[in-house]
Amino acid sequence: MPEILGHNFIAGQRSALGPQRLHSLDATSGEALPYSFAQATEGEVDRAARAGADAFSAFRQLPPARRAEFLEAIAAELDELDDNFVAIVCRETALPAARIQGERGRTSGQMRLFAQVLRRGDYLGARIDLALPERQPLPRVDIRQMRIGVGPVAVFGASNFPLAFSTAGGDTAAALAAGCPVVFKAHSGHMATADLVASAILRAADRTGMPKGVFNMVFGGGVGEWLVKHPAIQAVGFTGSLKGGDALCRMAAERPQPIPVFAEMSSINPVIVLPGALAKRGEAIARELAGSVCLGAGQFCTNPGMVIGLQSPGFSQLLGELGRHLDQQAGQTLLNAGGLRSYVGGLEHLQAHAGIQHLAGQPQQGDQARAQLFKADARLLAEADPLLQEEVFGPATVAVEVADEVQLRAALLGLRGQLTATLIGEPDDFEAFAWLVPLLEEKVGRILVNGYPTGVEVCDAMVHGGPYPATSDARGTSVGTLAIDRFLRPVCYQNYPQALLPEALRDGNPLGVRRLVNGQWSDRAI
Question: What's the mean pLDDT in 44-67?
């Protein structure tokens, strides 16, 4: 395993100009690990952003197959990281080795999936309207369109997925696939992990002949603002808190040249249990819900933070069963001390609210998170009570019992934007409650039926996004191949000679991509 140097990554070189050193911590004990990291100076952040800008033109103009080779090389380097690497990630995050090994497979698989996207070429969105010189009353000239990368992208990783949503995670993979160099802000919760992954990316870049500056990484607090405000940065990818995402959005909007921020932030992911399912399999639902709430210590942005049902003895029984399952859960170590403080603070706010009752859960004490169940007055949701809309990042969920369908509709209308909503029901339920689907379509990015939202498949059809505050821009996704769209923009070529056109738009279609030609899809030459 390569040495953990702890220096910033700038244009293929390492840099440590500032005097301040940061330390990685053992997530379980809080003790400092034997690794130190150089706080980036403003000058180093400037150099990193400029390195990305210098690499952009050459990188975006590489044939898609070359960029695909780069992504596949990154995947191979990640797969080759040994057990010592896994052990370091476990120490920094308190996550089990099996989880880290699975997440590494997800991360390398994500890179390979975007390599497939590059080879098939549909991300280019190629469109051709051939000239119509005889058209009356005016002729039409030849007009063609395709998409190119927007430019260097600043990426902020998440604490809860040290691989799949971090240094080589989905935002990095999508940006690189789009032809956009990346400047990554290393997460303070797993800096040693970030150092090792960044080194793997640079090895892949060297192996495949990528331009220097295609990937850069800086350590330290305060560097995020310098990055977002830097004129070379053309877009931002962020996974984290609502407060952090909102701050980045404001910074980006206040620039002389505003840029988009694609921030995935806050979601409570309601699970709606319908009467037929409750009557048929209430006990199983309670058990499955408890497992989903506690999976990964509840540290998923898709954690089911709210359970909604119609008032009935069956729903009361479900809550009793759910509470018993949560009471039996052992305490779990969270990713870091800050996460535990945030979780405890969220629980205290819920307990202090007059309209919210604590139903189950062992007393929260010590340095481990205990699973908790609360129940809120349905009127709070209908009135959009802000506390009920706040994500509590950890193994906790809030039950809401509605009197009837009228109150259910009012409660759901009071919800803010979400990543997911889940319907648990039987065929008769879905017929009787068919009105739920169009309502939820306007509130969430992904609607599940008879499943639980904590798994997010990486595939072409996935949407991991939703209206604010789930994300800052509901038109995209941070998981799945559609994530590349966030870092692309269209360019039109009018009356161009064949020799000057990009290959994807030439009559001969040398790339063999699918194109919209005069309103008809075709992968043939013209």
Answer: 98
Residue 396 has pLDDT above 80, yes or no: yes
Assess whether 412 and 482 both reside in one domain.
no
**Whether residues 285 and 151 fall in one domain:** no
Q: Over 70: is that where the pLDDT of 1 sits?
A: no
Distances (CA, A) of 374 to 39, 156, 226, 395, 397: 42, 32, 41, 12, 6
173: tokens are 């993979």
- The amino acid sitting at 379 is R
Specify the residue for token string 């506390």: 387
Give the CATH number, domain containing residue 331: 3.40.309.10
Model pTM score: 0.95
Reduced to 3 states, what is the DSSP secondary structure of residue 9?
strand
290 & 388 share domain:
yes
Range of the domain at 215: 36-122+147-265+476-486
**Catalytic (active-site) positions:** 264, 301
pLDDT digits (tens, 9 = 90+) for 335-354: 888 888 999 999 999 999 99
Q: How far is CA 38 from the centre of its chain?
A: 27
The Cα 203–Cα 200 span in angstroms is 5
What does each C-alpha distance from 520 to 195, 509, 524 come to in angstroms?
48, 15, 11
Q: What digits encode the pLDDT tens for the residues 172-182?
A: 999 999 999 99
CA 391 to chain CA centroid, Å, is: 16
CB atoms within 10 A of CB 83: 10
Distances in whole angstroms, Cα of residue 67 to Cα of each of 54, 173, 202, 241: 17, 11, 14, 32
Q: Which two tokens stand for residue 210?
A: 């990528």
What are the C-alpha distances in Å from 229 to residues 323, 443, 477? 47, 31, 24
CB 168 within 8 A of CB 104: no
Say if residues 41 and 17 touch (Cβ distance below 8 Å).
yes
Q: What digits encode the pLDDT tens for the residues 463-507? A: 999 999 999 999 999 999 999 999 999 999 999 999 999 999 999
Q: What is the mean pLDDT of residues 77-97?
A: 96
In Å, how far are 193, 282, 319, 364 from 322, measured between CA atoms?
A: 36, 10, 5, 18
Do 260 and 276 lie in one domain? The reply is no
Same domain, 224 and 258: yes
How do residues 119-143 score in pLDDT, each as one tens digit?
999 999 999 999 999 999 999 999 9
Total count of domains within the chain: 2
